[in-house]
Design brief:
This protein is an all-alpha fold and 239 residues long. It has two domains: 3-22 and 145-223, Endonuclease Iii, domain 2, CATH 1.10.1670.10; 29-138, Hypothetical protein, domain 2 (Endonuclease III, domain 1), CATH 1.10.340. It is built from 13 helices and no strands. It has helices at 3-18, 29-38, 44-56, 62-67, 70-76, 83-101, 105-110, 113-121, 128-138, 148-156, 166-175, 183-203, 217-238. Helix 1 crosses helix 11 (166-175), helix 1 crosses helix 12 (183-203) and helix 5 (70-76) packs across helix 6 (83-101). Bound molecules: iron/sulfur cluster (SF4). Iron/sulfur cluster binds at residues 153, 156-157, 200, 204-205, 209-211, 214, 216-217, 220. It comes from Acidobacterium capsulatum (strain ATCC 51196 / DSM 11244 / BCRC 80197 / JCM 7670 / NBRC 15755 / NCIMB 13165 / 161). Pfam families: HhH-GPD. This is Base excision DNA repair protein, HhH-GPD family. Keywords: 4Fe-4S, Iron, Iron-sulfur, Metal-binding. Residues 38-196 form the HhH-GPD domain.
Length: 239
């Protein structure tokens, strides 16, 4: 069984265990984009408080948010932490959409994914995970988001080495859906995949794994048995 097909089976197992995840939890693509910037290094509950501050002032609209002075933005997003850096990132992101796409997220969503990704990555404070989250959840592009939970799962299940890079995990995860030729259907899988990985990560695969009740323990046992079998074969060869 290849790593990609095992990962696909893990996805199917999680989907059967947890059901549809209905991500991203937001009311508009703009709110998703803002949330994706604010969630870096912060619990989602803190992001929700910042979003509530913006919503209370009717600022979750593109023109209103763009017109907001940066010092006021900083205060409103204070609950998410790193408010100076995050406010600057958000402003740069809004300016990108204003200058390149006339302030339209619909037009941004129509840009080629590679172009949009490069533009996002050029903004200070936006790394690959945030860029892919914006591409996928705000713009509807088939981007695979790699987070710490996914990295842990693939490493602990022997699907990738300890020091695996972002792009390598992303490639592996996309290979799990290689048969999918429809970009919209692939985007749906990417959406569910990331949401399900976050779910299993929060429930079981934290810094200390809690495998006993985890839906993915069957694959872990398979991997460990394979490891033991390989070890015995190697011992026999060395005898
Ligand atoms: S908790 Fe254990 S079985 Fe579950 S994903 Fe993590 S390593 Fe695998």
């Amino acid at each position: 069984m290849t790593a990609a097909s095992r990962l696909r089976t893990l996805y199917d197992t999680l989907a059967a265990a947890y059901g549809p995840q209905h991500w991203w939890p937001s009311e508009s693509p703009l709110e998703t984009m803002v949330g994706a910037c604010l969630t870096q290094g912060t619990a989602w509950t803190s992001v929700e408080r910042s979003l509530a501050n913006l919503r209370a002032r009717d600022l979750l609209q593109f023109d209103a948010l763009l017109a907001l002075p940066e010092d006021e933005l900083r205060e409103l997003i204070r609950p998410s932490g790193f408010m100076q850096r995050k406010a600057a990132t958000l402003r740069a992101l809004l300016e990108l959409v204003a200058n390149e796409y006339g302030g339209s997220l619909e037009r941004f969503a129509e840009a080629p994914a590679e172009t949009a990704r490069a533009q996002l990555l050029a903004i200070t404070g936006i790394g690959p995970e945030t860029a892919d989250a914006i591409l996928l959840y705000a713009l509807g592009q088939p981007a695979m988001v790699v987070d710490e939970y996914l990295r842990r799962v693939v490493v602990r299940h022997g699907l990738a080495p300890e020091r695996v890079r972002y792009a390598e995990v992303q490639q592996l995860a996309l290979a799990a859906f290689a048969e999918e030729t429809d970009p919209a259907a692939l985007a749906d899988h990417c959406n569910e995949f990331h949401a399900l990985v976050v779910q299993v990560g929060k429930a079981h695969c934290g810094r200390t794994p809690n495998c006993a009740q985890c839906p993915l323990r069957g694959d872990l046992e398979y991997y460990q048995q394979e490891q033991n079998r390989q070890g015995r074969l190697s011992d026999l060869r060395n005898d």
